[in-house]
Amino acid sequence: MDSLVRAVYEHGAFVPELPFDLPEGTEVVLAIHTINQVRPPEEASLEERKRILRNLVERMKANPLPPGAPRFTRDEMHERR
Length: 81
Fold this sequence. Notes:
Blueprint: E1 7-10, E2 13-16, H1 46-62, H2 74-77
Antiparallel strand pairs: 1-2
C-alpha cells in the first residue's frame, strides 16, 4: 500500500497529522519533504549580494554586544534539549 501522510517530527518520532490505520510493528519507508523551511534569498546579482552583506555588517556594528555581556561556552551554545 502506497500513500502520502503528513506528519510532524516531535520528540524523536514522526507523528501523523491524521490517524493512520496500520498494524503495530508495520515497517514503512519515509521520504522527507520539509514544508515552509526558511531558505536563503536567491540573488543573482553580485552587486545585490554585496549590498545585502554591507547592510548586515552595518546593522551588526550599530548593535554591538555590551562590554559586560555574558560569554557562552561552546556546550551552552549547542545545548540539545
